[in-house]
Amino acid sequence: MPDALLSVLADLRPWPLAALARALACDESTIRAQLAELQTRGIVPLEETAAGWQIRPALDLLDAAWLARACSAAAVQVLTITDSTNSALARQSPRANGDAILAEYQSAGRGRRGRTWQSPFAGQIILSMSWHYPEPHDTAALSIALGIAAAEALRAADYPVQLKWPNDLYLHGRKLGGILLETALNSSGAHTIAGIGINLLPPPNPGQPVASLSECGTIARNPLTAALINRWREAFARHPADRPALPARWHALDTYADRAVCLHRAHDTLCGTNRGIDEQGRLLLETTDGISAYSEGETRLRPQLLSPPTQEQP
What domains are defined for the chain? Predict the structure, then answer.
């Protein structure tokens, strides 16, 4: 991905081809090839106008000054382009509790299990937040708490978002977003960075059924982002004291509540009925052997068993 070119175009002004070549110290044919790559991938809403090449986002850009006023408890930084907001926040030192980084675009976003996370320019909420705990904490329960906080922030804005264990946001039965927690332990305690990506617009070539908030109508991007930041700060601050309340809060949002599911783990698959979570954020799966708690894997709806075709009697 030609990130240097994208950085120049990110000011949203029209750039003639010759001006882009001068700014990036390369020839026009190289610029044309990079522009073609941006257009082909569909990550950037790029147009060629009479005045030059220009990014024309469908949504408002993030307003750093407005967000700083709306989320004044800690620092909020808005980047135009970064590799990953989690990585960008990890590189900053010192960090205060609740410090947050947002980005219009990340070139190397990642999810759980090393998966990549596509982020079209200005088409998502891409947020990372830092928190320090003096003692090691239950990261699974914290991930659950942050998922609940995100879903509640979106539902307060009339988006009917639900959750899928362990940390996916769902809308209309399809994935809307996900959360990634990264924790480093040392003598001073646990340093946690949590990242979330939420589709505001449909991502190009997602590779799986996905949802976006644009399906529900207009999007007030900055107020929605501020609400998410403030809810996350509250969730971080309440953890781990809030763990007893997590199962009931999760159940109210669980898209697979009391449904037949399969839990796909690294070496096996278990099928049963989803009975929610426990205080540690573990999945409660009911099988013929009873209810057991599981801390890893991914849930999917269990395929309906097809009845064998009836045969005519002779």
Answer: 1-55 (1.10.10.10), 64-245 (3.30.930.10), 259-303 (2.30.30.100)
